[in-house]
Structures are given as C-alpha cells and as structure tokens.
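Sanity check. The docking grid for FE2/S2 (inorganic) cluster depends on where the pocket ends up, so I'm generating a full predicted complex first rather than guessing from homology. Inputs follow.
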Amino acid sequence: MDYQRVARSGQVPDGVVRRFFVGEVEIAVARWAGRVYAMSNYCTHLDCLLSSGHATEDGLLCSCHGSVFDYHSGEPITPPATRPIRTYPVRETDGQILVRLPPDAAEDRPRRRRPESTA
Ligand code: FES
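Predicted complex below; grid placement will be based on this.
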C-alpha cells in the first residue's frame, strides 16, 4: 500500500503526540528531536489512547500506567505493558506527514473495547 497523507507537519510540533485517523484506522503520530513517528494509538496494556500520553526522549509514554514504547520497534521499555505496539513507516515531504499502513491495520483495534462476539 502507498503512503497516505495524515497531517500537515505543523500539526505535530516537536515533543508532541497527536491522534489522527486514516480511514478507519486510528494512529498516534509523535515527533521527537525533529523526527516523526507513527504507531497504533492503543496501548497494549489496557488500551489507553497513546495520543493522550507524552512524547519523551526514551519513547512514547502511556499516561495511564506509565509504560514507554520505543518509537522504532514499538517494544515496551518499561512495564506494565509487555507486548509491543505496532509502528508504521512514516515520511515527511513538502510539509506533509505521510504514513504507510499495512493491509491489516484496521484489525489493530482495542482488545478490551471490541464488541462481544455473538458467535
Ligand atoms: S494502559 Fe498503557 S500502561 Fe496501562
């Protein structure tokens, strides 16, 4: 899949994380030290929105219980989260932030907020 425009560069200033939607896919976009990162917006601990957290020197901090996720790999650096978040290829050109989502990105929904299966 091609890169898709997500936001203007100015919408994600340095040290900030914001929430965006690409179709039905909810992502967090953060900038640290001038570089932009894109990832799932759902913490793998208890599904808090990572866009409500903070961009830090070490990674993206979930404000609910303090896990920090590596910007590149999505691996949790600090507990309580034990599983990585998904990270997405991102690039910035001509003042635009573009993200490439995998075909199954829409399946990356919060586990605990999913509707109950009727099957
Ligand atoms: S929900 Fe993110 S650390 Fe608990």
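Relevant for the grid: The chain has one domain: 4-103.
Also worth noting: The two ends are 32 Å apart (CA to CA).
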